[in-house]
Write a structure and sequence with these properties.
Distance between the termini: 84 Å
CATH topology of the largest domain: Lipoxygenase-1
CATH architecture of the largest domain: Sandwich
Number of domains: 3
Number of strands: 37
Oligomer: single chain
Shape: elongated
């Protein structure tokens, strides 16, 4: 016997998308939601189920929140109600659970919020106060290049399930539930069946965009994008430096490797700008390269997090790919405005301004020639570095 679920929703921009979930599983995705919330004009979306459906099994998951501060474009979803087997269930009902929203610039945490608004990625669940149980839902958004990849979920180092992919190159939402309360620090995602055939070009790779834990009772979710500075990859690939380990490198796993959240102690920040957009800067601690970035022609802020306590004096910001062509005038130069360390436990920060006398620059221009010295210039015109040296006279 077929059962229908009708969703009445509106989008602020017409680009909004949401997943319909039954029992925590995505059964259909709806995109380009139109309508007009201000005039209470909602579009109707219909899902036909193979068997009986009750409202307590239904969740609406908003999946493409976005905000552009320059244009003011704000992607938001508004859910009026669902209709299940002819019975209406309102989003603003006191029995509808909401995972959270932004209200007057402040985040309102999960609860029975009696709101139709989803202005951050999240869910609403119907008749939730009758059915909500204890436990953790673990979600990972990922794809496999061939569709044959296996992404293993581990808790406390023990494998609990193997996720597989339905098709090549299509991002999927992969879900696992447990009755146990699981902190995200206990979770690891491991790519376990890498393979490459040079003769055919066959190449298994996994791309993980984000992962999260969701407390089933409260709806609270802890979300980490794989570029987050706390996400450690045992080996991941970037165009900039190939395959290596590190924090915040993204989730392109091209060998058997894993991703997990690690507690960090220090955040390193560098404000810099390239002259051509091809300049490469490295953050180096006591001779060891911690990370490297490519600077654009706009002033940018680069972040790196470390599990160690790092002193500002132990760091160098290096320019490593200088180039000059006298015929065309092409000239790579790197401007570094400042760099700093932030203690994540205390919030204290040390800042080095490259034009101050306590910052040593190697490879700067003094108006006549390339020299080494303090506070001379904030631009490296040849391969060189800046280093904080407050105790050197």
């Amino acid at each position: 016997m077929l059962s229908s679920v009708e969703i009445f929703a509106a989008g602020e921009t017409g680009t909004e998308a949401f997943n319909l979930l039954l029992d925590g599983n995505v059964v259909q995705t709806f995109q380009n939601v139109g309508g007009d919330f201000e005039s209470r004009q909602f579009e109707r979306f219909v899902f036909e189920a193979d068997g009986p459906v009750t409202a307590d099994r239904v969740e609406i998951d908003f999946i493409n929140d976005d905000f552009n501060a320059n244009t003011g474009r704000d992607v938001n979803l508004f859910v009026d109600k669902i209709v299940v087997e002819g019975n209406t269930f309102e989003a603003e009902s006191s029995e509808t659970f909401h995972t959270g929203l932004i209200d007057n610039g402040e985040f309102v945490g999960p609860g029975f919020l009696q709101s139709e608004v989803l202005n951050v990625n999240g869910r609403i669940s119907f008749l939730a106060n009758q059915t909500r149980s204890f436990g953790t839902r673990i979600r990972v958004d990922a794809s496999g290049d061939t569709g044959e990849e296996i992404l293993q979920l581990q808790i406390d180092g023990q494998a609990v399930t193997d996720f597989t992919f339905d098709a090549a190159g299509q991002e999927q939402v992969l879900l696992f539930e447990t009755d146990e309360i699981v902190d995200i620090s206990r979770v690891r995602f491991a790519f376990v069946n890498d393979a490459f055939d040079e003769s055919t070009g066959f190449d298994r790779n996994v791309r993980v965009r984000q992962f999260q834990t969701i407390d089933i009772q409260s709806g609270y979710r802890n979300i980490f994008n794989t570029t987050n500075g706390q996400v450690f990859a045992s080996e991941s690939f970037t165009d900039l430096d190939g395959v290596t380990a590190g924090l915040g490198r993204g989730g392109f796993l091209v060998t058997d490797s894993f991703l997990e959240v690690r507690e960090t102690q220090t955040r390193i920040r560098v404000d810099a700008q390239g002259h051509t957009g091809e300049e490469i800067l490295q953050i180096v601690q006591n001779g060891e390269v911690l990370a490297q970035f490519q600077a654009s022609t706009d002033r940018e802020t680069f972040f790196l997090e470390s599990t160690e306590q790092i002193n500002l004096e132990d760091l160098q910001v290096r320019f490593v790919n200088d180039a000059f062509d006298a015929e065309t005038g092409f000239d790579r130069n790197l401007t570094v405005f400042n760099f700093q360390t932030i203690d994540l436990s205390s919030g204290e920060r040390e800042i080095a301004w490259t034009l101050e006398s306590d910052v040593f620059g190697s490879g700067v221009f003094d108006g006549q020639s390339v020299v080494d010295g303090r506070g001379i210039n904030n631009t490296l015109v040849t391969n060189g570095f800046f280093q904080f040296q407050p105790h050197v006279v």
